[in-house]
Amino acid sequence: MTDGALERVAIEAAHAGGDVLRRRFAERATLAVETKARHDYVTEVDLEAEAAVVEVLRQRTPHHAILAEEGSLGALESSTRWIVDPLDGTTNFIHGVPTFAVSIGLQSDDGLLVGVVHDPCRDETFHARRGGGAFLNGQAIRCTTVPHLDTALIATGFPFREMSRLAEYLRAFERFVRTTSGLRRAGSASLDLAYTACGRYDGFFEVGLFPWDLAGGSLLVMEASGTVTDVRGGSGFVEAGSVVAAGRGLHAEMLAITRELL
Question: Which domains does the chain have, with CATH numbers?
Answer without folding.
Answer: 3-140 (3.30.540.10), 149-261 (3.40.190.80)
